[in-house]
Every structure is written in C-alpha cells, then in structure tokens.
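Feature request, filed as a ticket because there's no other form

It would be nice if the structure record came with a short human-readable summary line next to the tokens. Right now we just get the raw output. Example of a typical job, pasted below so the devs can see what we mean:
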Amino acid sequence: MTAQGVFVLAHIPPFLRAMFGEEGIRDLVATHPRAEVALVDEPARFADLLPRADAALVMQSTVPALTPALQPSGRLRWLHSIPAGAEALLTPEVIAAEQIVLTSSKGPMGPMVAEHALALMIALARDLPGFARSQAAHRWDTRTDAPPMVDLFGKTVLILGVGAIGGHLARICRAGLGMRVLGLARARRDNPHVDRYVEPADLHAALGQADFVALCMALTAETRGIIDAAALAAMRPTAFLINVARGGLVDDGAFVAALQAGTIAGAGLDTVAVEPLPEGSPLWAMPNVVITPHLASKSDGAPGAVAAFLRENIRRFAEGEPLLGIVDRHARY
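Raw output as currently delivered:
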C-alpha cells in the first residue's frame, strides 16, 4: 500500500466477466478513487502483475502463482477468494503468511443458499418429487394410500453451522415458519433466531430432537464426517437431512445405508462426497432423495451480490477499514 493508493489485482476469467456483465465490470474497476483495480483473465498475466499488487482477488487456478508474493517483504497485504469456499486458497504457504489478511465471498451467498435449503426442506416435506413423477405419468395422485405430507410449522430444525448461510436459514425457519431452531456454532452464538445453541458433546442428543438437520458448516478436519453412522442412528426415522455445504461432512457409506434401511426419512442434497455424483450411485434412484448439482448459489441475484461485496471490500481496503468475509487461516474457513 502506498500514499498514492492501492493496487488491486483480480483474476476475472471469461465466465465471471459474463456473469458480472460489462456494467458490473466497469463499476468494479471504478470502485474507489484511491484503488487501481486491474482485471486479468490469464493466470500468466496475473503472475506478471502480482509483484505490484497490494491485494489480489483469486480463483483456484491462480493460487499456485501466489507463492513468490507471500514473503513479509512483499507488497501483498490482502488475499480474497472469489469463491465462497476458501479451501483452495489455504495452502501451507498462504497460511504461514500471517501479514496477509484472508477473506472470501462467503457473505453474499448466505440468503440464496439458505433459500435453496428451504426449497429442499419443502420439497421433501410435501413430497414434490413424488408429485412430479405422477405429473410425468399423467396421474391424478390424491395420495389416499400414502403417508401424510409433513408440516414445517412447529417442527424442529437443527442447523449445523450458524454463519452466513445457517443464520439466514434460522431466520426463515423461525420467523417465517414458526419452527423451533437449534444451532451448533463454533464461534459466535448471538443469532436471535436460534432458540438454543447446543454443544458439540450434545450433538447426538440434539439430532434426536430434530425433524430437519441442515448442514451449513465449513468442511474442516474437525467437521469432516460429522454425520457418521452414529449421528445417523441418533436421528429420528422421520427426520430429513439437508446438505447445502460440503459432501465431506457426511460419511457417504453410512448415509446410503441409513437411507436404504429407513433410519432417516430422506435427504435433500446440493452437494455430495464425489462430484459429479457417479452414474451408479444408489442415491439417484431413491424416491426420498432430492438432488441438485451444487448450484444453490447460482441464482439471478448472485452476480450483483458478489460484485457489490467485492466493491465494498475494495473500498474498505482503500480506506483502511476492516474487511468483510474474514477467513480464519487456522480454522480454515
């Protein structure tokens, strides 16, 4: 950073440029009078300009080019992962560069991913996949021989990870649907829409109280496989599992076995352990599973929300203000 201003280097590949649109790109470049913002679409050009940069906004393909700029004597003081998930950014070299602030675009995705989680919950509760099959067969299905549909009103949802996504889901569920909300959170526990926070040691007891379990947490060494065979066994046989976070949170083998055995009622999945989901996976054919291909954040509002988030953080960086979307390099999210 210099007295004259800051130089912000951003890797904007063609798909991002198309997503933001030319007006959005112009606004990004003109974010702040003391911020020179350079947008490049080739990793080689990014590497050439990086030694000049005070800040870098990166995609996964540009992370390997960062290493030479991570020395304390270098100019770089802020690294931002344009994807909300910062796993690709957190190389050992980046983690060790304590002088550099790390952020990601995890804030603006919260409302849209929470809405998708709700859509999966409603689809399962009202058996929308079953009605879609009946519609495709031109069958007027009055459900006379089927179990009743499930109300969300008055039910209990357990949200694992009450952050940008889980916090919005808590608000929707409690304020909009009259649900009881339990939450598991590592750090902040001040969401007013959570009726009760649970301790990690009490997870299995909380799972036994929930009608819906929503996974909204980051994938870390501590959370990998948090929904294992024991956790699934602790759930009610009438409960649904919703995953809009990361597939690695779930023990895939135990999960499939639980669905096949009826240990849980069903699942709504925007993410799975192996993506794309293999053609031979039994999950495809399960009538009580709703699958979307990891696109919960791909809505009409996403481009504008992400662009506005980037502009606000560039403004804050130029003004020396605290940045949004801080990533804890040691907690790895």
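Something like this underneath would help us a lot:
The first strand starts at residue 6 and ends at 11.
DSSP finds ten helices and twelve strands in the chain.
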